[in-house]
């Protein structure tokens, strides 16, 4: 069975995007950017919701060809293009860059993918992750908390019907007061 992780930059008050989908508060340091790049490099399959897919696919496929691209950006762009991806959307009609489109029920497909063989899976996008959280499919939460209060926007966590007990497995501090906390879901025997 594959492991499913949900990791995002998050404000101290729990949002992954400020109102208006503003991400300006979450610009990573070089060290944090490298951590995200290494995570992409180790991901067996990335699961994207439509909005985050559109944001990522509008930049990363050609980011390594942009004037002034740093070695780290070039490496990330290559890793992102090479990483197998699944996009869940009923409105997107085409995807590219080692990506497959799923227009049907996301929870059914994520459950099927988890049951298969392969490397770890990362889920990205608040709506998609919320669907997986609500049915208990997320095995790990990686919160990269930035020292900022944005006051609203897109929350990292969704409303749940039941408690989810977690175990802390890693903490790490990055420049600028950014803190990684990584938790695994405790499953009942």
TrEMBL record:
Source species, domain of life: Bacteria
SUPFAM superfamilies according to UniProt: Dihydrofolate reductase-like
Pfam families registered for this protein in UniProt: RibD_C (PF01872)
Positions of the Bacterial bifunctional deaminase-reductase C-terminal domain: 3-180
Protein name: Dihydrofolate reductase family protein
Organism: Pseudarthrobacter quantipunctorum
Classification lineage: Bacteria, Bacillati, Actinomycetota, Actinomycetes, Micrococcales
């Amino acid at each position: 069975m594959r492991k499913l992780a949900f990791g995002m930059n998050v404000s101290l008050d729990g949002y992954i995007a400020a109102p208006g989908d503003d991400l300006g508060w979450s610009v990573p340091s070089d060290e944090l950017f490298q951590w995200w790049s290494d995570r992409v490099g180790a991901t067996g399959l990335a699961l994207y919701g439509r909005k985050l897919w559109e944001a990522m696919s509008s930049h990363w496929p050609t980011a390594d060809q942009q004037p002034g691209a740093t070695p780290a950006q070039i490496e990330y762009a290559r890793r992102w293009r090479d990483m197998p991806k699944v996009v869940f959307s009923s409105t997107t009609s085409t995807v590219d860059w080692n990506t497959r489109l799923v227009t049907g029920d996301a929870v059914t497909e994520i459950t099927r993918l988890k049951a298969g063989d392969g490397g770890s899976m990362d889920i990205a996008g608040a709506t998609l992750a919320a669907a997986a959280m609500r049915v208990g499919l997320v095995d790990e939460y990686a919160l990269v908390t930035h020292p900022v209060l944005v006051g609203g926007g897109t929350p990292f966590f969704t409303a749940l019907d039941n408690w989810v007990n977690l175990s802390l497995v890693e903490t790490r501090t990055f420049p600028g007061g950014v803190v990684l906390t990584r938790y695994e879901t405790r499953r009942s025997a």
